Amino acid sequence: MPSACVPLVPQPPTITLQSPKDYIFDPREHIIIHCEAKGNPQPSFRWARNGTDFDVKSDSKIVMNPGSGTLDIDIIGGKAEAYEGTYQCTAENEHGKALTNKIVIRQSRSPLWPKERNEAMVRQKGAPLVLRCQPPAGLPPPVIFWMDNSELQLDERVSQALNGDLYFSNVLPEDARDDYICYARFPHTQTIQQKQPISVKKTLTLFNQKSSLIFFLLLCSDNPQGERRPRILLPSEPTSTKMVLKGVLLQLECIAEGLPTPDVSWQKVGGELPNNRMALHNFGKILQISDVNESDAGDYRCTAKNKLGLVHHVIKVAVKAAPFWISAPKNLILAPNETGILTCRVNGSPKPKISWFVNGVPIESESRKVDEDTVIISNVQIGSSAVYQCNASNEFGYVMANAFVSVLAEPPKMLTPPNLVYQVITNSPAFLDCSSFGSPIPTISWFKDGRISIENGDQYVIHENGTLEIMVAQVLNTGKYTCVATNNLGMRENSVNLEVKEPTRILEQPKYKVVQRGMSARFDCKVKHDKSLIPIMTWLKDRGELPDDERFEVDSDSLTIKNVVEGDEGTYTCMMKTSLDQDSASAVLTVVGIPVGRKPDPPTDLELTDQAERSVQLTWTPGDENNSPILSFVVQYEDSLHHKGLWVNLTEVDGSKTTTQLELSPYVYYSFRVLARNNVGYSEPSNPSSQYRTNPAAPDENPSNVQGVGTKPDNMVISWMPLTGYQANGPGLKYKVHWKRRDMDESWSSQNVVDKSQLVVDGTPTYVPYEIKVQALNDYGNGPDPEIAIGYSGEDVPLSAPEKVQVKVQDGTLAEVHWKPVNASSVRGQLQGYKVWFLRDSCRITIFRFDMQEKVIVFSGDQSHGQIPDLQPFSIYRLSIKVLNNKGEGPSSSNQTFETPEGVPGPPSFLNVVSPGLDSLSLEWGPPVNNNGRLTGYTLRYQPVNHSAEQGFVHELNFFANETATTLDNLNTSMLYKFYLSAKTIKGSGPTITEEAFTAMDTGETMCINSNSFPSIANTIGKEDWTKEWVNGTHSHMIKSLKPGMSYKVRVVATDEAERMHSSKEVPVTVPESSLPPFYLLIFIFGQHAGLLCHMFPSGFLFLYPAVPNRQVDIATQGWFIGLMCAIALLILVLLIVCFIKRNKGGKYPVKEKEDAHQDPEIQPMKEDDGTFGEYSDMEDHKPLKGSRTPSNGTVRRDESDDSLVDYGEGGDGQFNEDGSFIGQYSGKKEKDTHEGNESSEAPSPVNAMNSFV
Known about the structure:
It is built from 6 helices and 97 strands. Belongs to the immunoglobulin superfamily. L1/neurofascin/NgCAM family.
């Protein structure tokens, strides 16, 4: 029994709260180590750290909570590492010592990633790839995830292993990127550490030529790997083993590579996977089994499969178990000289070792016998109370439990308060408590009314804790019950009273109400209950409280709702509740706007009068109309002779009548019933009338829908809709079928047919008309004369072909065909029409391919001509005609051949503008797909288009049929031209195709970008705001409206057939400060083979980086500087002339002397090699030179980009031959004469500028 319920009884300590065995703390928070215990007297507490007792009070940062052993360690701002270790708390009083588990205290750690250098990884397309994460060892271990510019999406091909490594079963071009980053999130400290980014990309080679402005971007071949069988990447060994502890989560991992990406599946060898505890994760690559037990041990096979094969890997799983409790030892209270047994039942794998301790010390006393998991304490005495510890351990852990043995000599004490009154409802169970304490444990006895002893039996049960249970209490069980507790030290008793009450019952339940709006509704609820109990009546509406409305009045046994509205509709519940039980009942309230009617009651008293051969009068008495007038009556009948149990509507009678005359048929056993109808619905049927039988008679009608249709060329099938039994009018129903040829004078043939609805007439001629009639008859005579129907015998395929077939060609696409219709007798069936078959036999120009598909046109009915549209001009056709009937086609007419004349050609297949120059444009085009005749040439018209879209003078050129290219010279620079091209035959010109193109501007920049192969850039275009202009597969593009003094970066992006994106390297461009707007950038895109760009990349576009202000001021282009240079040059020229004249005269001037004595370093002699004067350089204000980049320290260096223009040296005219090789230089115009100076509009090359301004 729980000792806590016993006051002032000695009790050894019991641990009630302790911290977990493994405690990881956050250094930013206090360390709280729990140790709570109870006992009598109240236990004291002490602690051991790393196996040694330590004084808690000696450390000011450690506080032990009052009344417990819980430690609060303030480590904020201190050295948290100093408090790591193994802690154990001991709670003790004079009766024993209880110990907590050993609690290992460790600080959470989130170490930084070690410094490392990640080399860029280059992989072939389709090859496998593993990116290692190798996170730092944190405490607890971190959560790993990968990201690029967002969280990395994993799938069947890309997966993250349990150790954090990232696996690619096969790499794709879109996997190339520079920012694969492995992150480690440490949950305790809420920090995230990241690994250095890993770059995965293809090799990019930059090819440099000695050119100032031309860039070659060449991408190494992908050299993709082909499809291959799967191979297991993880686990890497041929076989592997896995050990898992019982009760934890088992995770098995299997990652494979291959192309196509393999599918992974799992099986347990020789067993089944536990479906209720199993889950697959990481797209089937991780098998998880929760709450592992011994049955989960065994071999697990992982299978990776693709269309080329499969591969297996077997993981051997062994299940071990840390010690776990089967039953922990329980506390004992013993009397002196008694013997007690403590049992410690545990299990584990391997089998745990059990050790016993008393008050924390190994057991050595002879009075305590240890037998593995059992301790026997013999002949205990007062003062031998103690706390025993059972410790079970193996290599995977331990469990420990405290159990005290308290030795007491106590007489019985009653814990249940005296004179309690128990109340129960009749037929319910009753429980009477008798809680006591004593040592030895008292024996409990029960008595009723002080003298009747109660024993365990059918009606009574005495539980071990002393409680008396009366299983089904009745009124006669009411009375006083006495509980007596006895041991060898004394006896105590306690009395309680039991009262058995009558149940609460609702005698009159509320009833369903239909109330008119504005009226009152009353629900009654009469209840019976025990008179000694106080009932509480509660009304609910739709299971909730009644509305707070004065219209709702609640009395002791009723609910009244006044002036009801539509919102009052619902379910009302009456609930009567007492302190012991309750009962309830419900009813529905319906609110209507007008008095509500119900379906009428069924009619009664059906009577048959005025009985005749074919009629009878039916009379009835209406039932109650139930507040809704009867609108009509429906009379139904049953034919018990032919269709017993089937009631059929016979007639409907107005609601104001109660009789009707019924028309009857012969040979029917009638029974009648009547239904009444009002606005609510139909009543139930009345009871059937007496049976009325009509006499048989000859049929009144013949079968309907008589037809004659042949199914074979020599037969005719006559069919009809048979009469029903009701229509037969008598027994022996049969049909007499008559037929004869319509086109001949012959007598009728006839045959009787019974129980069928068709007759096959054989031996008929092919497709001739017949007159047919079918008459009904029975045992009482024949039906009326039947009507004649026309039928036909069976059809056969036509015998003849159309003759005199002629074709009249209207134009190149339309012809009209005429023929002589066949004789009607040769059709041998119903003529459906004529089928014209025609085929384009050949093209009159044999070098062209043509469509030889047969075509068919059907002309319905008896036609003799028709039109054949959609012909191909300048072609030869064959044509034949067949006649059609329902059976099929007749023979074909003789083939007729006809030719279509020439027509205008289709549009040229393409028109491309290539190689735009400053004043020229080259055009290429292709012949039409459909020439529609002999091609005589092409007409090219072109005109300039200005910036306001106004078109200029139209130039027209004509070309021969074998010409498909031309170059237009003497065009305006930087002008947009529009071209119109059409092909011609002798019939005229065909449709026109158009194209537009710019000529180059000589003040612009020009560059060439090789696009033979671009690296894949899927998802790597970046976050910069690029301007995009479409190229549409051409080999050049002009970027307009650039701003002077701004810097740009340009690249070309293309998409292939698989929608993958590819990009060239970025090329820097700087617009000169002195350029007059608009400024244009002409870009040439070329490849190793003509047309390769269009073939590989059907669409492309340019990305233009946003302009950045050019802070470099080109001094050579400034007006003031040019003027200054000119003045200095003129002055030097004058001085030289003066000196020359003076020297010729032999004299010396002061100027000459000064020049000889102190030469000006800023004035350089005239260069002899090119005849130009030396340039001026301001050393104090060293401005940057055009085409160069000057750093802040004033030194001239090459740009950090590998694409620096300085690397390419001087340039010349940039030209490329057809295979894309370099054949010239691109710097623009050739070197000018000395007197031209800097007047050239062509930008100087960077090297020239460097050489000039030294």
